[in-house]
Design goal:
Strand order of the largest sheet: 3-2-1-4-5-6-7-8
Number of strands: 10
Shape: globular
CATH architecture of the largest domain: 3-Layer(aba) Sandwich
Largest sheet: 8 strands, mixed
Bound molecules: nicotinamide-adenine-dinucleotide
Strand content: 15-25%
Radius of gyration: 20 Å
Distance between the termini: 57 Å
Structural class: alpha/beta
Length: 300
């Protein structure tokens, strides 16, 4: 399969921007491609600010930072960087039609040896691989948010993913300073998000059953279980609509009513109360996004 020197990251959003910097810091020539110039500008600014803070705190030297930025390119041209890519990490919007179109295009534009990986949280490789003529070189390489900080990556193989692709992806993840966990069988949500989902569902059952309040459940999770934040706080952080859409998509696939979004989550989504980003969710937030202590928006 040859060596991996050049990486192409698709999408410069929350995940793509940081994944790009992780690659550049690890010594790879990295191109970050997005359709939207505004997303690229935002990504560049965010990474400059983030690395400036890391330099200030002594976690990164100025020389390392400058070398990483010298290896990092942002652009709206796909053809040029794709032609040189040894490995692609797709982190575009979570829509299957967009991803399948992108993978078909990448299959046409990248060299035959290139591995095409998706950072998708929900779509397994087999939903995407058959859009390409190289399904053996398609897998999930799933980072966690914030990608610069979180060490774990899940590598998910589909039925057609080759051993060689898995080996090369594991080796790449290690070079990026990550701890890869390989899943040999595909399942929506993989491991981390399934466990997170189970905790979230139980928390909602306890709430809707009138057993404990939002604040009580979050407090127990933080102070008894050592979670960095409670399940309701986490839903507010990631966006209540994200979990809602994931569950709806899972229900559409399974037809199992257990997979439907819960009553209280549906109510919040219908009211547009999606968490921090809208100022209200399970809790209320001030205009800087800080939780207004002692005022859970919903205390059932
Ligand atoms: N946000 C998370 O916490 C998280 C964690 C792990 C994995 N993921 C996955 O990462 C992917 C990206 O998520 P995100 O949160 O960074 O999304 P985001 O909305 O922040 O960014 C998506 C970017 O993709 C760009 N885009 C859309 N269509 C494109 C196309 N055809 N070509 C190139 N760029 C395109 C958009 O302009 C946008 O900048 C999703 O598949 C998601 O499931 C997200």
């Amino acid at each position: 399969m040859g060596t991996i020197d050049r990486i192409l990251v698709i999408g410069a959003g929350t995940m793509g921007a940081q994944i790009g910097l992780v690659c550049a810091l690890a010594g790879f020539e990295t191109a970050v491609y997005d359709l939207a110039e505004t997303a690229l500008d935002r990504a560049r600014t965010e990474l400059e600010e983030r690395t400036a803070r890391a330099v200030e705190k002594g976690r990164l030297s100025e020389a390392e930072r400058d070398a990483a930025f010298a290896r990092l390119r942002f652009g709206t041209d796909l053809t040029g960087p794709a032609a040189k890519a040894d490995f692609v990490i797709e982190a575009a919007v979570e829509r299957l039609d967009v991803k399948r179109k992108l993978f078909a295009e990448l299959d046409r534009l990248t060299p035959p040896h290139a591995i095409l990986a998706t950072n998708s949280s929900g779509f397994v490789p087999s939903r995407i691989a058959d859009a390409t003529g190289r399904p053996d070189r398609v897998c999930n390489l799933h980072f966690f948010n914030p990608a610069m900080v979180m060490r774990c990556v899940e590598i998910v193989r589909g039925p057609q993913t080759s051993d060689e692709t898995v080996r090369a992806t594991v080796a790449l993840a290690e070079r990026l300073g990550k701890l890869p966990v390989v899943l040999d069988k595909e399942i929506p949500g993989f491991v981390a998000n399934r466990i997170l989902g189970a905790v979230r569902d139980e928390a909602i059952r306890l709430l809707e059953g009138g057993i404990a309040s939002v604040e009580a459940i979050d407090t127990v999770c933080r102070t008894a279980l050592g979670y960095p934040m409670g399940p309701f706080e986490l839903m507010d952080l990631t966006g209540i609509d994200i979990g809602y859409h994931t569950k709806k998509a899972r229900y559409e696939e399974s037809g199992d009513p257990q997979d439907l979004p819960s009553r209280s989550v549906t109510e919040l989504v219908e009211r547009g109360e999606l968490g921090r980003k809208t100022g209200k969710g399970w809790y209320a937030y001030d205009r800087h996004g800080n939780k207004i202590e002692g005022t859970p928006w919903i205390s059932r």
